[in-house]
């Protein structure tokens, strides 16, 4: 533990720190004050998981991502699986089914060719399982000591079906909040391997493509309001982003949030909050109350949503704020994370 570094130090840093890549408040500030003004364009104002592009009469979702997870292989997956599923899931949060995919490998001099082959094979298998074609790519090599074995950059596109409009601005008070299954598995799985920690049972990453689950939900109703996959920053970050963008408050029932016992125990030992731990195969949905039962049933009928649960609702009070009702009858504010509890998890 002496080698650990704080991923979220003071916010007035003149240099980039680990927390700027954590998906929390520091990441948002970097985007707002550095990248968005430099790039310009109205599409960046939405800061969604994927951009919507109109070409002719078609609505395309387009997303890009980079993966720097350490270690490269972990229980339940590898950086190759993450590279596919992370991009596929970002597209799925727009309602799109990923169709085409690009992949760039940044390799460190000295990494074993067999390791590169294993990652490439895992990536190809994950792409076939998700129904996406890898159609272009790139390879670069950096000097030894200037990388960490393998980094992967990806982009993906998919077609958004007619009648689908998923964005946080559609959330209204009364919407039901549904999470697709147990949270915290990916982040704890990564940490257990990275730090050589044992918790009495192997914790496996939930890394999986969510396109099929989203299709099942849209078959129940096209009137879903917003979907998010709670990766960096965990469920707490996703809920806060939606609350801020929609101008509504969010109330969750703490005991309703599905947290596996092993994850809860591991987080207690490490001093972590499962609400802030990353996931790679879960989504959170805000659904009109009239459609909530049908959507929940459709999710539970799908293998990746079998343990879906209603955890709360959108409310008029405390706009832009997420509040949890505890098992003892009290309430606590669930803030946007500043940086990231567990860096380098995707």
TrEMBL record:
CDD domains with a match to the protein in the record = HypE (cd02197)
| Domain named PurM-like C-terminal: residues | 173-318
InterPro entries documented for this protein: HypE, PurM-like_C_dom, PurM-like_C_sf, PurM-like_N, PurM-like_N_sf
Positions of the PurM-like N-terminal domain: 49-160
Family stated for the protein in its record: Belongs to the HypE family.
PANTHER family on file: CARBAMOYL DEHYDRATASE HYPE (PTHR30303:SF0), HYDROGENASE ISOENZYMES FORMATION PROTEIN HYPE (PTHR30303)
Q: What is this protein called?
A: Hydrogenase expression/formation protein HypE
Which organism does this record belong to?
Streptomyces tanashiensis
> What's the source species' lineage?
Bacteria, Bacillati, Actinomycetota, Actinomycetes, Kitasatosporales
